[in-house]
Amino acid sequence: MGLDVYTYVVFGKRVPRSTIKAVVNQRGCTHDIDIKQNFCPVCGKPVWTENPHDLLDSMNSGALSYFYPYHNTDDVIIGFALAKTDSHRIREPDMLEVLSPEPHMIKEIVQFFKDNDIALDVSELKTYAFSYFND
Ligand SMILES: [Zn+2]
Fold first, then answer.
1. Range of the domain at 96
2. Rg (CA), the chain
3. Bridge partners of residue 84, in order along the sequence
4. Average pLDDT, stretch 65-72?
């Protein structure tokens, strides 16, 4: 008996997931036409449309990343994992040693928020700890 537990310690900032959006151009239809035109001569749709693109989907784990610790909101934490436990069946109290955030992490987070036009004060960055459970 026991629980499968994954515990993370993450340094970063909590934001609503919906704020992390960018707009990319996407083809408006699938007709094989000259893409320099404004409208498709076959179906009349715009050749290009602006589609919201979720930047979070393009972020890699292991580097600046995002975490979903919240059950009741759509919020995410953008940041770096400072420590995490391996998944295992817990039989006794577990312990994590957590290093301080490194200067390059702060730099990368600041740059990410700047690139995406999201307000960020460095004093808002926090260290979060959370666990996922699986029975
Ligand atoms: Zn078309």
1. 4-134
2. 21
3. 8
4. 81
